[in-house]
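sry for the spam today, last one i promise. C-alpha cells for design, 319 residues
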C-alpha cells in the first residue's frame, strides 16, 4: 500500500482553496492514506485559514518567493512526510481533484515515474487566445527539444513517484513546469500523460499577470535549462549557424572575385573570418560545457543520495 500526499501551492486563493481540498478523494484503491498539504506562498488574504477549515492535513507558510519556490518547498515537505506518491494540483479549482485516481494509476502500476494531466488545450474554448496558443507553442517547443510526445508541457496537474521527486531539483524562480520535464528526460524518468478536465478560471491568473512577460520568462527558462542539460547540442547549433553565415560571406567574395570584382569586397572575408571564428569558439565552448556536464551528473547523484538519506525511504508497502 502507498501513502499519497497531494500538494497544493497557493497564493491568494481564499475563494477556491477549500473547494479544491474537499474535492480530493480520501479513499483510493491501493492507497493506504491520502493527505493534503497546502503550501502558502505569503498570501495576503485568508488562504491559510480557509485551507485549514477546508480540511487540509498540513498547512505551511513562508514569504512570497514565487510559484517555482513554492512548488519546490511543497515537494520537499511531502518527501519529509514519507510520501510514496505526490500529486501537485493548483489552488484555483481549474483541475478536477476527483481525477486523481486516474492520474496516479500509471505510477501504481509501475508504468511511469511522472504522469502529466493533459488539459487538451487545443479543444478549450474558455482559455484566452494568447494563453491557449502560448501553451501550444511552449509544448511544441518542448517536444522538439526533448524528442518526446509531450502534449501539454505547462500543466500543473501532475503526479510523481517518490523516486522521481527525489531526483528533481527546481532551480528557476519563475515556473517549474518546463524545467522539471527537461530534468526528468535527462534523468531517464518515464513519463505518461492522461486527458483531464480543465475548468474555466474565475478571475485573473496569479502566474500570468502579463502574457508577454510570462512568455519571455518561460522561453528563457526553457533555453537556460536545456543549455544546462544539453550544452553540446545547444552550442553546436549556435556554432554551426555562425559558421554557415561566415561561409556565405566567403562564397559571396569568391563570386565577385570570379567575376573580376573581388578587390572591392575584401570586407566579406573579414566578416566571414569573424563569424567563423566565433562559431568555432562556440563549438569548443560546447565541448567544454559537455565535459563539465559529467561533473553535474555526479553532483546530482550525490544530491539524490543526500535527499534520500535526509527524507528517509518513505513508507512504501507498509502495513
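last one done:
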Amino acid at each position: 500500500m502507498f501513502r499519497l500526499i497531494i500538494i497544493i501551492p497557493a497564493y491568494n486563493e481564499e475563494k477556491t482553496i477549500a473547494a479544491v481540498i474537499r474535492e480530493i478523494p480520501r479513499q483510493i484503491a491501493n492507497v493506504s492514506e491520502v493527505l493534503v498539504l497546502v503550501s502558502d506562498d505569503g498570501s495576503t488574504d485568508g488562504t491559510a485559514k480557509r485551507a485549514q477549515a477546508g480540511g487540509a492535513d498540513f498547512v505551511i507558510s513562508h514569504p512570497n518567493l514565487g510559484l517555482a519556490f513554492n512548488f519546490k518547498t511543497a515537494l520537499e515537505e511531502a518527501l519529509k512526510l514519507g510520501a510514496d506518491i505526490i500529486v501537485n494540483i493548483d489552488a484555483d479549482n481549474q483541475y478536477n481533484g476527483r481525477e486523481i485516481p486516474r492520474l496516479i494509476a500509471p505510477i501504481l502500476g509501475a508504468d511511469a515515474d511522472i504522469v502529466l494531466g493533459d488539459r487538451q488545450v487545443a479543444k478549450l474554448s474558455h482559455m484566452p487566445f494568447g494563453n491557449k496558443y502560448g501553451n501550444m507553442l511552449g509544448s511544441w517547443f518542448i517536444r522538439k527539444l526533448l524528442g518526446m510526445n509531450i502534449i501539454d508541457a505547462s500543466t500543473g496537474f501532475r503526479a510523481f513517484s517518490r523516486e522521481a521527486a527525489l531526483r528533481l531539483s527546481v532551480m528557476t524562480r519563475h515556473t517549474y513546469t518546463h524545467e522539471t520535464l527537461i530534468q526528468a528526460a535527462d534523468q531517464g524518468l518515464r513519463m505518461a500523460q492522461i486527458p483531464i478536465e480543465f475548468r474555466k478560471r474565475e478571475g485573473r491568473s496569479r502566474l500570468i499577470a502579463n502574457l508577454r512577460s510570462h512568455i519571455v520568462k518561460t522561453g528563457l527558462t526553457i533555453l537556460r535549462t536545456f543549455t544546462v542539460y544539453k550544452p553540446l547540442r545547444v552550442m553546436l547549433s549556435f556554432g554551426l549557424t555562425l559558421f554557415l553565415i561566415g561561409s556565405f560571406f566567403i562564397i559571396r567574395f569568391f563570386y565577385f572575385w570570379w567575376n573580376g570584382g573581388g578587390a572591392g569586397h575584401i570586407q566579406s572575408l573579414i566578416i566571414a573570418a569573424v563569424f567563423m571564428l566565433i562559431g568555432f569558439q562556440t563549438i569548443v565552448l560546447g565541448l567544454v560545457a559537455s565535459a563539465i556536464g559529467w561533473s553535474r551528473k555526479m553532483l546530482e547523484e550525490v544530491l539524490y543520495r543526500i535527499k534520500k538519506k535526509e527524507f528517509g525511504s518513505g513508507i512504501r508497502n507498509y502495513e
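The longest strand covers residues 31-41. ok im logging off now
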